[in-house]
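Appendix B. Raw example, untouched.
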Amino acid sequence: MKTLLAAAAAILITTGAAAAEEAQTPPTLWYQAPIESGCTVAVVEPMRTPSEWTGACTPGSPISGEGDFRLRFEESGRLLVMRATFVDGAPDGPAVIRVYSLATDEQIEEHRITFVRGCVQGRPDCTPLPAR
């Protein structure tokens, strides 16, 4: 299941923090990708998984504010729900990630992670999403 969580995190965001500069890691290249509502989310690679945002948003604009970002993994029968605050399309601050069975709607696992503008706090292999 940790593989599913890792894959979902890679789809949505990449990991790291400002230490990327010190480690000579190239800056993370972010772009906005559309989600089902027509709003956008900040990603570093193409999203191939259906996703939705439960918070308010304006089509064509990055998701911002508090809400649930949901990713459906039909092949594995899992639904990943990230409860977080988003800024300019990227999670920022504490987040709770829950994984559910699509067949039974039963919660399988839960993780708590802190993000810094899309990057997992404390990881050196990511440059946070620049402020707009």
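End of appendix B.
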